[in-house]
Prior knowledge:
Layout: H1 11-24, H2 37-44, H3 48-60, E1 64-67, E2 71-74, E3 80-83, H4 97-105, E4 110-119, H5 122-128, E5 135-145, E6 148-158, H6 159-162, H7 180-185, E7 193-201, H8 205-211, E8 219-228, E9 231-241, E10 245-248
Parallel strand pairs: 3-10
Antiparallel strand pairs: 1-2, 4-5, 5-6, 6-9, 7-8, 8-9
Helix pairs in contact: 1-3, 2-3
Amino acid sequence: MTINExxxxxxxxxxxxxxxxxxxxxxxxxxxxxxxxxxxxxxxxVALTTAVKAxxxxxxxxxxxxxxxxxxxxxxxxxxxxxxxxxxxRTPAGHAPNxxxxxxxxxxxxxxxxxxxxxxTPQIAERLHxxxxxxxxxxxxxxxxxxxxxxxxxxxxxxxIVGGTPIETPVxxxxxxxxxxxxxxxxxxxxxxxxxKTRARMPTSEESQILQIGSGxxxxxxxxxxxxxxxxxxxxxIAIRGDRMxxxxxxxxxxxxxxxxx
Length: 262
């Protein structure tokens, strides 16, 4: 790869992109040492400070790790699979979907929780079909895997629905706590629909800080709302590191009438 000075893309970004491609293509495998900043500067014909910045960007992304006196090495970063179909269901265990995903994927996460109340913003009020300023309970959950945060979700529930009930306070991060569907089942409100929209975007400064990611890593940003009939009982904003998560979906396709598979 040759650095294109006229592309409008910073040379350090181009160098980092080239190394990222080398890792993706298997030229540098997990555990391999990547060239030093001085070697990268010579390879791409850039200033040493430019190469140093490229290495720093890759390290911020979590793609490499630097060992004092030894150099920088490709980190092991297993992909995490998020179920895209049949994710939300009423199960006997009643726990949140990420428990099943962790079991299938063979990974174990930890979840921290911060809970409070606030007045609904116009955006949240619109999603919950309430009036701006109406009180809502709020819970922010951060999923941590291998000491690195990979996902944050902020969940809102109308106090007009949950207030005075056993589920008025959102659950904490204890593993095995009931999911949204099971919680509302327990007070006789039966969720029958979940709407979820997924977008890709760059992180805000707050998201970058919480998820410990550099500015070059995109997010998968989901907005989710649980409904019981026409009543929105919960809505959430979920930000996931786009470099770690894979949305896994299987879609059944109906066969033509009269046709069956052998």
